[in-house]
Amino acid sequence: MLYFRSDATRGLSGGYHYDTRGMTKIVPKSPNFKVKFSLDIKKGGGPNGQFYLMDIGSCWKNNGKPCDGDVTTDVTRYSEMIINPSIKARCNPKHLRLCPPYHTFSNGTRVHRTDKRRFPYDAYHVYCSPGNGEHLEEPHNLCDAYSNPQPQEILQILPHPVWGEFGYPTKKGEGWIGDARSWELDVGRLSHTLYFYQDPGTKPLERHWPSINIGAEIYVSSNEVAEWIVSDFDILVPKS
Length: 240
Fold this sequence. Notes:
Blueprint: E1 2-7, E2 34-44, E3 50-59, E4 76-82, E5 102-104, E6 110-112, E7 124-128, E8 152-157, E9 181-185, H1 187-193, E10 211-217, E11 226-236
């Protein structure tokens, strides 16, 4: 992992159980924040590299309560937009366990993953559920229990037209090597629509995102290299 990362100045570090030492004084919350930056990718980390145009991290319990450092009940939550054009969607009608149970369009319409006509399978690389979820929908794919000190939930998305209204890339290759761009991503509004597990019957929580990242995670590589330039980075939060 090699990220440009902006964490909160206080509280838990992203989705982890230790104290943060970041530079974000105001923790952004869904749906009211944007992230603005310029990105020029020189080397992307190889064909298997997962380069994240945007990676947001947080932590809350399955009952919607804030994390408190108890690694048995705290759950790290991530959403990541992968822009390496060689990365394909693993979510598809034949592998529903790799898809989130629902996709919610910006108008509030919610579509179940079994709806082959309307569910945007190609918009999702993979989804995995928290291992301590007690009411997970079948079939499900549990997140790796060994790469994090506590349970985690990960939702990885890919360039697709459904994300275009939030300022995200709509097709493969946008923003990749040779296509340097300036971005203004409506991360708050997008993150408000994304599926994350919560126990049935519990009050929907207000999603706070104390970790905002850009960068690469290199997989199955033979000395691959990632290199990029980030400039003019800012998190835009409206005045309360």
